[in-house]
Specification:
The chain has 217 residues and is an alpha/beta fold. The protein contains seven helices and ten strands.
């Protein structure tokens, strides 16, 4: 398959193993319920590059095509993909698109599909044995809270709300750690929290403020 027709990428995320094919879409405009994370969206940093923007915009149009499932199946077979991640960037933007992803997973029962979403409608995909979609909010005594923040914030959610903390950036060596090779928890677990790092961690006020509310302070 010619490169310009490819929908899925491999090897562009240092955190993920090369055994994962990723379907990326434009950030923010395909994301529902993103008000608490739009201002610090890591995907927007990459989206500013013209070649990335062009590809992700094209991917969005391809997901709207009637033959999206067929084209995806051909490409994933060509790549011998064992695992697919929905959306390093973007989200399940419509019910029609969710239904296409459902059909894609049905058509490829030997591939494991996973991802994170703020769209509850996408959780219907979990009815399939080869799919695990994790809701990116955690239900607490003060309502839903986002699933990433400081280490203290994540540890509180783990200890009080049965949330798994992603080992990348928490207990693992970032240099050598590869998701879906060293850890495959996200293929089966219900809830995951991520320790914030890099530029976002320096400006995070959400964690401290939310922790105070969770603790009733």
């Amino acid at each position: 398959m010619a490169k310009q027709n490819e929908i899925y990428s491999n090897g562009n995320n240092a955190k993920l193993g090369n055994n994962v094919s990723i379907l990326n879409l434009p950030p923010i405009k395909t994301c529902v319920n993103c008000s608490t994370c739009a201002g610090s969206c890591y995907a927007m940093f990459r989206y500013q590059y013209p070649n990335v923007q062009k590809r992700w915009n094209r991917n969005l149009e391809m997901t709207k095509a009637d033959n999206f499932v067929e084209l995806s199946t051909i490409e994933l077979k060509y790549k011998a993909t064992p695992i697919v991640r929905f959306h390093e960037s973007g989200d399940f933007y419509s019910d029609e698109y969710i239904d296409k992803c459902f059909d894609l997973a049905v058509a490829n029962p030997n591939i494991k599909f996973y991802g994170y979403t703020k769209n509850k409608n996408a959780l219907k995909l979990n009815a399939l044995a080869n799919v695990n979609i994790i809701y990116s909010f955690i239900d607490t005594n003060i309502g839903e809270v986002r699933n990433y923040g400081t280490q203290e914030f994540c540890e509180y959610l783990r200890d009080n709300y049965n949330t798994t903390i992603c080992p990348h950036g928490y207990t693992a060596d970032k240099t050598n750690f590869k998701c879906m090779i060293d850890c495959q928890e996200c293929l089966t677990c219900d809830s995951v929290c991520f320790v914030e790092h890099g530029r976002k961690a320096k400006t995070d006020t959400y964690s401290d403020e939310t922790l105070k509310r969770l603790r009733g302070e």
